[in-house]
Amino acid sequence: MKKELKHLMALMVLALGLVSCHDDLDQSPIDPDSFTEEDVFANAIEAKGALAKLYASLALTGQQGPSGQADIADIDEGFSQYSRMLFNLNELTTDHAVVGWGDAGLPDLHGQYWSGGNDFTEAMYYRLAQEVSFCNSFIENASALSEIEVQTFIAEARFLRAFAYYNLIDLYGNVPLVTEVSTDLPQQASRIELFNFVESELLEIQNILSQSGSNEYGRVDEVAAWALLSKLYLNAEVWTGTSRYTDCVTYSNNVINSTYSINTNDANGNGTAYDELFLADNDTNGAQNEFIFTLNFDGLRSQTYGGSTFLVHAAIGGAMDATEFGVNGGWAGLRTTKSLVEKFPQLSIADLNNALGTQSDWGIVGDGTPNGWTGPDTEMYQTGTNQYALYTELTDGFLKFRFNEDWGNNYGDNGADGSLESGGENIAVTAGTYYITLDLDALTYSITSFTPTSDQRAMFYADGQNLEIEDISEFTDGYAVTKFKNIDSNGDQGVDSGGDFVDTDLPLIRLAEIYLNYAEATLRGGGGGDLNLATTKINELIERANGGPGANVSSGDITLDFILDERSRELYWEGQRRTDLIRYNYFTTDAYLWPFKGNSPQGTSVANYRNLFPLPNSIITVNPNLSQNEGY
Question: What is the per-residue pLDDT across 30-51, written as a single tens digit (0 to 9) for each?
Fold first, then answer.
């Protein structure tokens, strides 16, 4: 389906293929009156307000809250938000995600059979083109102001434009390079030319941007420029044919030695400081010290059906309780494949049970238990006086608690309320791995879904979910991902009392990623890289994930494939995966397969041209200077 930007955006954004003029830019995605010389650019205060719109255009989708007066027509407005489209293009196309919805063009992404007219690949191009266009207008008009602080604003706008071009290089390859408002049809730039532009911009603005940690939360500083250079140089060999791993090491080191630090504050006291990165108060709970560049969300003041609202709602379905995630319901769409789940080292259930205590005469019996109704009972482990626990696999069915295989001493649950009654009703269970507790003093029990790994980054919901995916449209096929929540560190819901919109900010770049960039660049031969330092930094992430050093690795364990897997464990669902797989030559080839890659249940290779997405057909038609990417 042909897609246009609302208010004739297809004629408006001449940056990247279509002609643009200053008057056209009055049709802003946030406020159509905000990009005018006589208003926004009258002074530094007004310019700062306009700068906020440049940040917001990556987070929001239109001029009227979550829906209404959308920037991009002919696609659901919620789908058109930047980070939601980044998820669709960089995560849904990989082993990290599947979606059960049948919207035209969406199943094509995970199956890797998208066409040149795919709605989602086109909409992302327009979103990035819009950002470039607005940045160009801001830079041109703000340059007329003399206040010193405006130079910092301009540097931030140049960063945002460079970030948009970084995405365009990654996703589309050869696109027009436009740095000023113009009515001319632009020429197509090569990937190398675009790479050189982004590099030069970041190098020029690094000393103009605010110093490390001195800018207000949500705005970039010099460290963001260094971090984006780290990302750019890590991918240089793929994008330009020339490796720049030494430069990646250099700028990763700059970031590592800055004022930013990984979060080690376990604010909610659950034994790991990782989940704080994705809670509703991640702007204040300690996670903000790790965030280098974020999209900021507020359930009342910045409402969208993209962003973190999408990542929370869309991942809830099946037997999941939406209130535990701080929202009013689930959209029953997103899950993951077993390829991600199996990236996390699995613990032996036998070892877990042996660590609980001494095996007892109390056990569970039923057709949902390993040995059925005929037994023998699956014995529990005594953890205290009249306290018992057990890790076990269950199937769909029922169970009861029984002493010494004696039906004269058994407990069930008449009210399905967690309270036990002697001889009570059978307790219904669904297939999965569980941690079961029994308290004979209080006559209560619990059955909690459990992922058998010590790595607490493995945030999956398995209760009633099948690890294997047979039917993508069925939410219960594939584990659900519980990484993002609209719950703060105190367990309270976000500010939208209705539970529609989410407060959680999304990190686009955080320090943990740069740790992994440093390690990979070092292993790939980057000069100045220290493998021992790389190992130390990776172990910081592993210790945070495991609640201690028990799973730490040595320098001999650090291989390129280990780093790729560690990136998967640390960064899943954060918009990185496709880029990583391409860098390893795994995205299209048969060197690494995952379920439904190439639209095959077992996975198959696809043509290498799918390392890039197609340019929108509409801009090819309008601008004869442009050539479509190979294969489309």
Answer: 333 334 444 457 899 999 999 9
CATH T-level topology, domain 349-449: Immunoglobulin-like (2.60.40)
Long-range Cβ contacts of 342-349 (<8 Å, 24+ apart): 343/565, 343/568, 343/569, 344/451, 344/453, 344/455, 344/457, 344/458, 344/569, 345/453, 345/454, 345/455, 345/551, 346/452, 346/453, 347/452, 347/453, 347/454, 348/452, 349/391, 349/392, 349/393, 349/433, 349/452
Do β-strands 421-422 and 406-412 pair in parallel, antiparallel, or remain unpaired? Answer: antiparallel
Among 166, 75, 127, 122, which Cα is nearest to 620's? 122
Written as one string, the DSSP assignment of 113-153 is ---TT-HHHHHHHHHHHHHHHHHHHHHHHHTT---HHHHHH
What pTM does this model have?
0.85
Please answer whether residues 443 and 411 qualify as being in contact, where contact means their C-beta atoms are separated by less than 8 angstroms: yes
Strands 98-99 and 334-335, sheet pairing: antiparallel
Radius of gyration from C-alpha coordinates of the chain: 26
1-197+593-632: which CATH architecture?
Answer: Alpha Horseshoe (1.25)
| Burial letters 251-274, b for 16+ CB under 10 A, else e | bbbbbbebebebbeebbbeeebbb
What is the 3-state composition of the chain as percent helix, strand, coil, each rounded to the nearest 5?
A: 35, 15, 50
Instruction: Tell me the Ramachandran region of residue 423: left when phi exceeds 0, alpha when psi lies from -120 to 50, beta otherwise.
Output: left
Query: What CA–CA distance (Å, rounded) separates 587 from 574?
Result: 17
Cα→Cα distances 329→282, 312, 316, Å: 22, 10, 7
Phi-psi region of 399 (alpha: psi -120 to 50; beta: other; left: phi over 0): beta
One-letter amino acid of 44: A
Q: HSE-up of 207 (CA within 13 Å, CB side)?
A: 3
Where in the chain is CATH 1.25.40.390?
1-197+593-632
CA separation for the pair 493, 256 (Å, rounded): 33
Three-state secondary-structure class, residue 154: helix
Q: Which two tokens stand for residue 496?
A: 């939208």
Identify the bridge partners of residue 392 per DSSP, sorted by sequence position: 434
Q: What pLDDT does 3 receive?
A: 35
| Residue ranges of the chain assigned to CATH 2.60.40.3620 | 349-449
Q: What is the mean pLDDT of the chain?
A: 92
Q: pLDDT tens, 196-253?
A: 999 999 999 999 999 999 999 999 999 999 999 999 999 999 999 999 999 999 999 9
d(CA 432, CA 434): 6
Q: Go through 171-180 and write b for each residue having 16 or more CB atoms within 10 A of its CB, e for each that does not.
A: bbbbbbbbbe
Structure tokens at 20: 């643009």
